[in-house]
Amino acid sequence: MRNTDILIIGGGPAGLAAAVGAYEAGARDILILEREERLGGILKQCIHNGFGLHTFKEELTGPEYAQRFIDKVEAYQIPYQCETMVLDVSPEKVVTCVSRKNGLEHIQAKAVILCMGCRERPRGSLATPGERCPGVYTAGTAQKFTNLEGMMPGKEVVILGSGDIGLIMARRMTFLGAKVHACVELMPFSSGLKRNIVQCLDDFGIPLLLSHTVVDIHGREHLEGVTVAEVGPDLKPIPGTEQYFPCDTLLLSVGLIPENELSEMAGVEIAPSTSGAVVDESLQTSVAGIFSCGNVLHVHDLVDFVSEEATKAGANAWQYVQGSLPESGRKVPVQMGFGVGGIVPQFVSDKAEGNVSFMFRPRNVYRGARVIVELDGTQILSKKTMILAPGEMVNLSIPAEKLQPLADAQAITVRIEVPEA
What we know:
seven-stranded mixed β-sheet, alpha/beta, 3 domains
C-alpha cells in the first residue's frame, strides 16, 4: 500500500491543471495516473488552433496547449505514471491500479480528483438501420487516424451530428483532399460552437442540414452510401424527403459521455442531467474527499474552462487535505428552470465562501433573453444576452454578498427569461 496526499486520475487537460492548481496552492505530495503512454489526453490529436485564448491570451494548437501544462508539471516535479490503468476507487479513497512497470498497486489517498474525461457516443447507441459495414467511425477516431497515425479513413464523407469534433473533422478531411458532402444534424440547431460552423463548414461550402438524420446505411463489404431524410418536430423522419449521398465514410459526432465508471465504483452520486458527478461549489462530490472536474463532470465547449475548473478542484482538494476547506453545512439545491440544462454545481453549501460559479447549457436557441438567478423566488442576478445556444456554455459568477441569505434558503433557481414576441 502506497500513500499520497492527492491522487489525480487522468493526465489530460483536467488532470494536468488540477495537479498544477494543487501544487500552487501548497500541496507537494501529488500523483497523476494516466492510462495512455503520454500525458496530454485528447489534446494530443487536436492539431488545429483555437485553444488558449482565455488561459494564455494567445491562440495555440491542442498539443501546444497541453505542453504548457506538462512543462509546469515537470518544472514542479509532480510525479506521474503513464500506461497505468485504474481498476477501482473505493469510498475510502483507496485506488487500485495496474501497470507493466509496477504491477498491481493499491494507493491510499487523502483526496482523489476524478479527471477521466469523456468518450464519444458510438453507433450502437443510435439505432440507425442499415448494414454493419466498415467505413463508419466516430469523429474522434477519424481524427486520431489522420492526425496521429497518418491514415485517411476515406475520400467521400458524410458527417452525422454537428458536435465540435465533427465540424473540425469536416475541415480536416477537406484539407486532406476528401469531399465532405454534408453535415447532418437531427436537431433544428447545431450542437457546436458558432465559430466552428463558420470556419469549418461555411468557409468550405459544406452544407449543414438541420432537422435531418441518416435513415439508412448502404453497403456490405464497405460503406457505399447513406440515405438522409428530414425530420419533423417529433424528430421522426418525414416520408418523401429522403436523399441519397454516395460515400465511403460516415463520421459520427453525436455526443460525448463522461467516463464515470470509476466514480460509480467510489459511490459517487451521478446527476442525470450531466451524466457526471453531483458536486457542490467546491467541486467535491457526494463522497467526502473525492472531487470531480473537466469533461468527466460535464462536457465543456472550451478547454480553457476545463483548466479553470480543474485548477479550482486541485486547490480545494489541498484545502480538504489540510482540513481548511469550509465545512459543507446544509446543502442548498440548485434547480434548473426554463431553458436551462445540465447545470453545475447541483448544490451550494450554506457556508459557501467567496463567489460561486454556475455553468450550464441552454436547451434551445434564445435571442435577446435574460439569464435569471433566484434565491427562493427572489431575483439576485439578471444578465442580458444577445444569443444563447446549446453549443456554447453559459458561465455565471454570483457575488458572495448576493448569497448571504443562503443559511435560510430552500433552493437556488437558474432560468432563462425570453422576451415576449
